[in-house]
Description:
The protein is mostly beta strands. The protein has one helix at residues 65-71; strands spanning 2-3, 7-10, 13-14, 21-26, 29-31, 51-53, 56-59, 63-64, 73-76, 81-82, 86-89, 98-107, 111-120, 127-136, 141-148, 152-156, 161-170, 174-183, 197-203, 212-218, 237-238, 242-244. It contains 1 helix and 22 strands. A hairpin with a 3-residue loop joins strand 12 (98-107) and strand 13. The protein starts with a strand and ends with a strand. Residues 33-49 have low confidence and may be disordered.
Amino acid sequence: MIRRPPRSTLFPYTTLFRSPECKFGINDKIVMDSKGKGTTDDPTRTTGKTSIAIDDCQFHQCVKLSKFETEHSISFIPPDGEFELMRYRTTKDISLPFRVIPLVREVGRTKMEVKVVIKSNFKPSLLAQKIEVRIPTPLNTSGVQLICMKGKAKYKASENAIVWKIKRMGGMKESQISAEIELLQTDSKKKWTRPPISMNFEVPFAPSGFKVRYLKVFEPKLNYSDHDVIKWVRYIGRSGLYETRC
Length: 246
């Protein structure tokens, strides 16, 4: 599996009158140094779901940094509308949403058989969306026959790839695609170097393990009560560089 360390962002959207103070409570344990870079080799670091190792993070100028290090909370007075409150990167203990299992069999010099299985590694109650798997094909491909259990697949000659799309897929499920690829004979003796299979998707959780424990809005001087504010948190995890060698 080839992947770029996930870079994640926290985007609040507010329509609060007179900008009261807000506070996000996040994971109980965060491993960072004073410069905002993670100390992932810290021997005291736990591997439970409530912990997260952050290698580096950046905050919006409205954040009160002192409370983040001491309370594991993000206190800020928000501007109106949507803005980027926090950006961070993690490199350890990332929960990979999918496992991609490729099998390639060359049948002589004029045929190739490819089978790709994808398995979802998250809770059955959750749904991944906008799934797209791109399977590279040789430059001398003349035709492709496809069979897929779920979704739709198409060979795109201009892109030298099979594109397999699935609208939704539940957790702890698997699906597969099989392809029979016809090849033109060539004089070249150079063996085809197989590019990696790539995958795009969206999942309703943070693969980094980031958790929002609470969200509070308070400002006594402005007569704000936390119970009078409508609040919600939505997690969206999007694939970055998510590739598998075949």
